[in-house]
Protein backbone atom coordinates (compact mmCIF):
# COMPACT_ATOMS: atom_id res chain seq x y z
CA UNK A 1 0.00 0.00 0.00
CA UNK A 2 1.48 3.41 -0.92
CA UNK A 3 2.34 5.78 1.89
CA UNK A 4 0.40 9.04 2.18
CA UNK A 5 2.41 12.23 2.36
CA UNK A 6 2.49 14.01 5.76
CA UNK A 7 1.13 17.21 4.24
CA UNK A 8 -1.88 15.33 2.87
CA UNK A 9 -2.54 13.82 6.30
CA UNK A 10 -2.35 17.23 8.01
CA UNK A 11 -4.66 18.75 5.40
CA UNK A 12 -7.18 16.00 6.02
CA UNK A 13 -7.01 16.56 9.79
CA UNK A 14 -7.52 20.28 9.63
CA UNK A 15 -5.33 23.17 10.47
CA UNK A 16 -4.82 22.60 14.21
CA UNK A 17 -6.51 19.24 14.79
CA UNK A 18 -4.31 16.95 16.84
CA UNK A 19 -1.36 19.35 16.69
CA UNK A 20 0.26 20.90 19.73
CA UNK A 21 2.02 24.24 19.72
CA UNK A 22 5.82 23.91 19.49
CA UNK A 23 7.92 23.92 22.66
CA UNK A 24 9.16 27.49 22.14
CA UNK A 25 5.54 28.75 22.15
CA UNK A 26 4.83 26.97 25.43
CA UNK A 27 7.89 28.58 27.04
CA UNK A 28 6.81 32.17 26.33
CA UNK A 29 5.00 34.15 29.05
CA UNK A 30 1.20 33.82 29.07
CA UNK A 31 -0.94 36.29 27.16
CA UNK A 32 -3.31 38.53 29.11
CA UNK A 33 -5.50 36.33 31.35
CA UNK A 34 -5.31 33.25 29.13
CA UNK A 35 -4.20 29.81 30.30
CA UNK A 36 -0.64 28.74 29.45
CA UNK A 37 -1.94 26.25 26.85
CA UNK A 38 -4.18 28.87 25.22
CA UNK A 39 -1.33 31.40 25.32
CA UNK A 40 0.94 28.92 23.54
CA UNK A 41 -1.67 28.54 20.81
CA UNK A 42 -1.90 32.32 20.46
CA UNK A 43 1.89 32.69 20.27
CA UNK A 44 2.07 29.92 17.67
CA UNK A 45 -0.56 31.50 15.42
CA UNK A 46 0.94 34.96 15.76
CA UNK A 47 4.35 33.59 14.77
CA UNK A 48 2.98 31.73 11.72
CA UNK A 49 0.70 34.53 10.52
CA UNK A 50 2.35 37.68 11.74
CA UNK A 51 0.82 40.85 10.37
CA UNK A 52 1.35 44.39 11.55
CA UNK A 53 -0.55 45.63 14.60
CA UNK A 54 -2.18 42.32 15.51
CA UNK A 55 -0.43 41.52 18.77
CA UNK A 56 -3.20 40.07 20.92
CA UNK A 57 -1.80 41.41 24.20
CA UNK A 58 -1.67 44.94 22.75
CA UNK A 59 -5.20 44.68 21.34
CA UNK A 60 -6.59 43.47 24.67
CA UNK A 61 -4.68 46.23 26.48
CA UNK A 62 -6.23 48.87 24.20
CA UNK A 63 -9.72 47.42 24.62
CA UNK A 64 -9.38 47.32 28.41
CA UNK A 65 -7.89 50.83 28.52
CA UNK A 66 -10.97 52.16 26.73
CA UNK A 67 -13.30 50.34 29.13
CA UNK A 68 -11.33 51.50 32.21
CA UNK A 69 -11.76 55.19 31.40
CA UNK A 70 -13.49 57.11 34.18
CA UNK A 71 -17.10 58.18 33.90
CA UNK A 72 -20.38 56.43 33.35
CA UNK A 73 -21.10 56.34 29.65
CA UNK A 74 -18.30 56.18 27.13
CA UNK A 75 -18.24 57.53 23.59
CA UNK A 76 -16.04 56.04 20.91
CA UNK A 77 -13.31 58.23 19.45
CA UNK A 78 -12.70 58.00 15.71
CA UNK A 79 -9.13 57.67 14.47
CA UNK A 80 -7.49 60.73 12.95
CA UNK A 81 -5.80 58.59 10.27
CA UNK A 82 -8.03 55.57 9.62
CA UNK A 83 -6.03 54.52 6.53
CA UNK A 84 -2.92 53.84 8.61
CA UNK A 85 -3.08 50.26 9.97
CA UNK A 86 -1.66 51.18 13.38
CA UNK A 87 -3.25 54.65 13.72
CA UNK A 88 -6.65 53.10 13.02
CA UNK A 89 -6.34 51.36 16.39
CA UNK A 90 -7.12 54.67 18.11
CA UNK A 91 -10.76 53.75 17.34
CA UNK A 92 -11.81 50.99 19.74
CA UNK A 93 -14.22 49.59 17.14
CA UNK A 94 -11.21 48.85 14.92
CA UNK A 95 -9.47 47.22 17.90
CA UNK A 96 -12.51 44.99 18.36
CA UNK A 97 -12.45 44.13 14.63
CA UNK A 98 -8.83 43.04 14.91
CA UNK A 99 -9.63 40.98 18.01
CA UNK A 100 -12.30 39.23 15.96
CA UNK A 101 -9.78 38.51 13.19
CA UNK A 102 -7.29 37.06 15.68
CA UNK A 103 -10.09 35.03 17.30
CA UNK A 104 -11.03 33.40 13.99
CA UNK A 105 -7.43 32.33 13.29
CA UNK A 106 -6.80 30.62 16.64
CA UNK A 107 -6.80 26.89 17.34
CA UNK A 108 -9.93 25.62 19.15
CA UNK A 109 -8.57 25.66 22.72
CA UNK A 110 -7.14 29.18 22.44
CA UNK A 111 -10.29 30.36 20.61
CA UNK A 112 -12.46 29.15 23.49
CA UNK A 113 -10.27 30.87 26.10
CA UNK A 114 -10.17 34.15 24.15
CA UNK A 115 -13.92 33.89 23.56
CA UNK A 116 -14.51 33.85 27.32
CA UNK A 117 -12.40 36.98 27.74
CA UNK A 118 -14.15 38.76 24.84
CA UNK A 119 -17.65 37.92 26.13
CA UNK A 120 -16.88 39.66 29.43
CA UNK A 121 -15.27 42.67 27.72
CA UNK A 122 -18.10 42.96 25.18
CA UNK A 123 -20.70 42.90 27.95
CA UNK A 124 -18.91 45.80 29.65
CA UNK A 125 -18.61 47.61 26.29
CA UNK A 126 -22.37 47.27 25.67
CA UNK A 127 -23.13 48.44 29.20
CA UNK A 128 -20.91 51.54 29.06
CA UNK A 129 -21.65 52.72 25.50
CA UNK A 130 -24.91 53.71 23.86
CA UNK A 131 -26.25 52.56 20.49
CA UNK A 132 -26.32 55.28 17.85
CA UNK A 133 -29.99 55.93 17.01
CA UNK A 134 -29.13 57.88 13.85
CA UNK A 135 -25.77 56.78 12.43
CA UNK A 136 -24.23 58.88 9.67
CA UNK A 137 -24.63 57.50 6.14
CA UNK A 138 -22.09 54.85 5.33
CA UNK A 139 -21.23 54.29 8.99
CA UNK A 140 -23.57 51.39 9.61
CA UNK A 141 -23.17 49.20 6.53
CA UNK A 142 -20.41 47.93 4.29
CA UNK A 143 -19.96 49.80 0.99
CA UNK A 144 -17.82 48.93 -1.98
CA UNK A 145 -16.25 51.97 -3.62
CA UNK A 146 -15.53 51.83 -7.33
CA UNK A 147 -13.02 53.93 -9.28
CA UNK A 148 -15.70 55.91 -11.11
CA UNK A 149 -17.17 57.06 -7.76
CA UNK A 150 -20.11 54.68 -7.90
CA UNK A 151 -20.75 52.89 -4.64
CA UNK A 152 -22.63 49.68 -4.20
CA UNK A 153 -23.90 48.36 -0.88
CA UNK A 154 -22.93 44.75 -0.25
CA UNK A 155 -25.67 44.42 2.36
CA UNK A 156 -23.34 43.40 5.17
CA UNK A 157 -23.98 45.57 8.23
CA UNK A 158 -21.03 46.51 10.39
CA UNK A 159 -20.71 44.68 13.67
CA UNK A 160 -22.68 46.06 16.62
CA UNK A 161 -19.62 47.75 18.12
CA UNK A 162 -19.41 50.07 15.10
CA UNK A 163 -22.98 51.23 15.65
CA UNK A 164 -22.29 53.04 18.93
CA UNK A 165 -22.25 56.78 19.64
CA UNK A 166 -18.96 58.50 18.72
CA UNK A 167 -17.50 61.72 20.12
CA UNK A 168 -17.63 64.60 17.68
CA UNK A 169 -15.00 67.23 17.85
Task: Explain how this protein is built.
- This protein has 169 residues and is mostly helical.
- Helices cover 43% and strands 7% of the residues.
- The protein has six helices and two strands.
- It has helices at 6-13, 23-27, 36-48, 56-67, 92-105, 108-128; strands spanning 141-145, 151-157.
Topology:
Layout: H1 6-13, H2 23-27, H3 36-48, H4 56-67, H5 92-105, H6 108-128, E1 141-145, E2 151-157
Antiparallel strand pairs: 1-2
Primary descriptors:
about 170 residues; two-stranded antiparallel ribbon
Strand % is 5-15%
Strand order of the largest sheet: 1-2
Q: How many helices in DSSP terms?
A: 6
Mean pLDDT: 79
Q: Major β-sheet, in short? A: 2 strands, antiparallel
Radius of gyration over alpha carbons?
Answer: 19 Å
In short:
By secondary structure, the chain is mainly alpha-helical. 43% of the residues lie in helices and 7% in strands. Helix 3 (36-48) crosses helix 6 (108-128) and helix 4 runs antiparallel to helix 5 (92-105).
